[in-house]
Amino acid sequence: MAGGDTMSRYIRQETLAEVGPAGQARLRAARVLVVGAGGLAAPVLQYLVGAGVGHLTLVDGDHVSLSNLHRQVLFRETDIGQLKVEAAAASLRRLNAECEIVTVPLPLDPANAPQLVAGSTLVLDCADSFAVSYILSDTCRAAGIPLISASVLGFAGYVGGFCGTAPSLRAVFPDLPDRAASCATAGVMGPTVGLIGAAQAQMAIACLIGQSPSPLGQLISFDMHSFRMGGFRFDTAPEPDTALGFIAASAIAVSDFVVELRDAAEAPLSITPFAQRMTVAQFTQQQNAPPEQSRRAVFACRSGLRAWQAATHLRSYWAGEISLVAAGDTVPFERQTT
After folding, report:
1. Apex 177 CA angle, 60 and 162, nearest 5
2. Number of H helices, E strands in the chain
């Protein structure tokens, strides 16, 4: 690309005093990790690449499906069946060949998160999974790397700047919801996803150029059913004293007290051969305590929500270490059954 063309590509944003040549250089030097290549990532990726971010790593193990297209507007019908990260990368390279794009066609989990996050200037959570959000928050907080996390369902959602110089996502959302729904189970409006994804991209760029006030420590909420927008700063939000962390299934040890909360129809094979299988209701109806030789209790379910519920019950009367395993995608309206 000719030098004149390179200079004119970013002239409209470089004209802004908040960007200028110095800000553009920071964008070019940035290494951004984007987890999730779906609806939120569609505007995020296009705006970051368009703005001249120098290096992007895309993490997602999913494939493009027909039901994605109403909101994941980075894809076309001809992309159906392809890995999302590969289809996205091909489109983004046509937008800006100067941006280096690395694809990781795997789901993010506690085992690969530290390596993926390491060396990043900024991490963006565009995944439709609260387990991924907490894993990224824990990992980014430990590494001192900023995290821009967004969530959307139905007509509403939020985006916030966490970690780095700000409190973590756990400081704002210390507890999981009573029940969990995903875009697949509860529905989502495409333009709402685009709006929140665009806001996420703006917060990411603001973080990269050092804009003041910083997006870190700021949460913005959107309700496009009633057409309202809100937000607040959480710079002084305290971190929770104790946090229930996620681990990979491969990290389970034979000395652990393991409870498999999925039934045989949902998971024919338990998370480990030595796991005890029971429902959340069965576990919470009695004070099951790990044997003395168990160094840790581990609860496994599909999304992590039932594991969180059972772990919260155990923590009310047992002071040992507790970990959670999210073994797969969210079950429709997964919740405790009585």
Report:
1. 55
2. 12, 13
Same domain? For 250 and 221 the reply is no
Which residues lie below 8 Å from residue 213, measured CB to CB, with a gap of 6+?
A: none
CA geometry: angle at 127 spanning 118 and 170, to 5°?
70
In this structure, are residues 235 and 217 in contact, taking their beta carbons and an 8 Å threshold?
yes
Q: HSE (CB half, 13 Å, CA atoms) of 45?
A: 36
Q: How far apart are CA 135 and CA 245, in angstroms?
A: 8
259 and 199 together in one domain: no
- This prediction has a pTM of 0.91
pLDDT along the chain (338 residues), means of 10: 61 93 96 95 96 97 90 89 94 95 96 96 94 96 97 94 97 79 73 94 97 97 95 96 90 94 92 93 85 87 92 91 82 34
Instruction: Please tell me whether residues 192 and 265 are part of one structural domain.
Output: no
Whole-angstrom Cα distance, residue 70 to residue 75? 10
CB 88 within 8 A of CB 77: no
Q: What is the DSSP letter of 179?
A: S
Q: 257 forms bridges with which residues in the sheet?
A: 297
Catalytic residues: 183
Show Cβ contacts of residue 99 under 8 Å, excluding neighbours closer than 6 positions. Answer: 49, 52, 53, 54, 55, 56, 92, 93
Cis peptide before 213 (omega within 30 of 0): yes
Alpha carbons 151 and 146: distance in angstroms, whole number: 17
> How far does CA 41 lie from the centroid of its chain?
11
Contact 256, 297 (CB under 8 A): yes
Is 120 part of a structural domain of the chain?
yes
